[in-house]
Write a structure and sequence with these properties.
Radius of gyration of chain A: 20 Å
CATH superfamily of the largest domain in chain A: P-loop containing nucleotide triphosphate hydrolases
Strand content of chain A: 15-25%
Largest interface: A-B, 37 and 37 residues
Strand order of the largest sheet of chain A: 7-8-6-9-10-11
CATH topology of the largest domain in chain A: Rossmann fold
CATH architecture of the largest domain in chain A: 3-Layer(aba) Sandwich
Order of helices and strands of chain A: EHEHEHEHEEHEHHEHEHEHEHH
Oligomer: homodimer
Shape of chain A: globular
Number of domains of chain A: 2
Largest sheet of chain A: 6 strands, parallel
Structural class of chain A: alpha/beta
Number of helices of chain A: 12
């Protein structure tokens, strides 16, 4: 996809809780540098720290180039109440990038306003460009892929934390986004679960192309090899990313696979072994370099520490909570 | 997709060798009962045994309902020289079903003729209908999936042979097509490699829904878990099909994975073990019931027999060439 134009104006609409605005909040958290401010309706109760609320006109004056629709309404669609604001942003010359499940083009007023101003409408959950079939050819440069025991266990967060830490250490690194929130944060990427299934590994290949020998792509994982709905996506991404290094992500309080009460989470050891075994097809040198645990739902800090110590001993790999301990110990293991 | 209307008229265009007409020939082979005849251009040198050549008008008079475009031209597109025939078929009221890589709707004359006659244009390599996400829920009835060491090793042929043999034995069975040739033969199905990747396993689930306890769905496999381009499709299909039984298909003279000279074929034992291990996620009772070898490229019959005996001993499963020995020994193993 075309790269999003920066800086961004984050749109919060009328959402009443942070969970519904988590994509916008993610962008504010990871790309604070490229956010001009937030725009919202009067009844929106969500606040984003350190970002001013402003009108579309004010944002345009301050140089905003793209309105980010990083929110979820109950229907998964674009709420009618948001449309006047979206139209106004387009009138002010901003592009609009949406992480929602419906295309911006479904709304005639939006199409009309975009045509008039010449602004772009970008639907990051859809992918319409032609893709190649994966080749499995060895590429130059190095790649790390985050894999998970389940969906939504911290693969994106861990990938972003790794990228940030590696940049801080002066390493040559890029984050490669594969889901809508990651794409809005990175400003580019491919939503691998939205491509035609013949091209999953091809999408991962062009997302992390040949690069300098010391360069790392940190590829955001999707789904899980053990999720009955999405394992095909996970395997295509695993093969196409051709990872040199894997980081396994896990959320220890999860009772069952996300949205699938019949399915238990896999054991960490088995999950990692299966990922390594299957990854060897396209990169026989692949190795696991760390475990990232999201401990935010655990009862207390002591329990979290004890759990991570046990996992670290059991798997013989640095085990951290990226949100608490950072990921420097995993990065050290890349050398 | 909507079921194709029978009977069919097979179109051969101007192709000069049977390989380019293999989809049409496959339909003639497996669905002789529903083929009225063939239509072709004067310079076409391919013959289909026991089927008369006729004009579109004659086919319509004899009751043909669908023109099948089961051929490949060098560009993968629809040749300009075929278009007058396609338009004439539409004028005669026939639907047109295409297994080609371009949509019939890409040609204005075809669109116009279809609009005029009210006939349907069906592109079996594309899938535009909404699909559910896979659930992994246990379904009633039984399922067999053919899996392969590689692409194009006989999974469709084996699936059709199994269905035919089981029907002959009076068993309650349906063939479930997942690729364009299979779909044209069956008259329905879902091209799983053409669906959005989030829905691969969901597609396989609706393709082989709940059924009577003694009913078998024979699901046509796609790709291979060991093919770097397509393994994601194969895994999504494996999980969604939820097979009780697997038949492993192989072509022993293949030097490397199809179109991928860098990739060797997997060992049969490893390939089967990996399929079984991963299939257990959605059906812990899955078992392998047979091996289907396409020996047509082997040097001689003795070599083929010796090879199959070795495999049979090594894997402890009935090993047959469906085109030579039939598949009754595998069907016996289903009981």
């Amino acid at each position: 996809m075309e790269k999003l134009k920066e800086p961004y104006l984050l749109y919060l609409g009328d959402v009443s809780e942070t969970l519904s605005a988590k994509t916008s909040i993610g962008v504010a958290q990871w790309r604070r540098d490229c956010c001009i401010g937030v725009a919202k309706l009067p009844d929106c109760r969500v606040k984003v720290e350190n970002l001013d609320v402003m009108s579309m006109a004010e944002a345009a004056t301050r140089g905003a180039k793209t309105l980010i629709l990083g929110l979820a309404n109950p229907g998964g669609s674009i709420a009618a109440s948001w449309i006047p604001d979206i139209v106004e942003a387009l009138n002010q010359g901003l592009d609009v990038a949406s992480g929602l499940h419906v295309r911006l083009e479904s709304f005639p007023q939006i199409v009309e306003a975009a045509a008039k101003s010449g602004a772009r409408l970008i639907n990051v959950r859809f992918y319409d460009e032609a893709l190649p079939v994966g080749t499995g050819k060895q590429r130059s440069g190095k790649r790390l892929l985050t894999v998970g025991t389940d969906c939504s266990v911290g693969k994106m967060y861990t990938s972003l934390a790794l990228t940030q830490e590696m940049k801080k250490q002066g390493l040559n690194v890029d984050f490669r986004a594969t889901g809508q929130t990651g794409i809005l944060i990175a400003g580019s990427g491919i939503p691998v679960d939205a491509v035609i299934s013949d091209f999953i590994s091809g999408a991962a290949e062009i997302l992390s192309p040949d690069n300098e020998d010391d360069h790392w792509d940190i590829v955001e994982g999707q789904g899980s090899l053990f999720h009955p709905s999405y394992a095909g996506v996970s395997l295509g991404l695993l093969h196409g990313a051709q990872p040199d290094a894997l980081v396994l992500c896990h959320e220890p309080t999860r009772k069952h696979m996300r949205h699938r009460p019949d399915y238990k989470l896999p054991e960490l050891e088995k999950c990692l072994a299966t990922n390594i075994e299957l990854a060897k097809l396209t990169n026989p040198q692949v190795k696991a370099v760390g475990i990232a645990i999201n401990t935010s739902q655990m009862e207390n800090r002591e329990q979290a520490i004890a759990y991570m110590e046990t996992v670290e001993k059991q798997l013989g790999l640095p085990c951290v909570d990226p949100g608490v301990n950072g990921v420097a110990r995993i990065v050290r293991n890349l050398a």
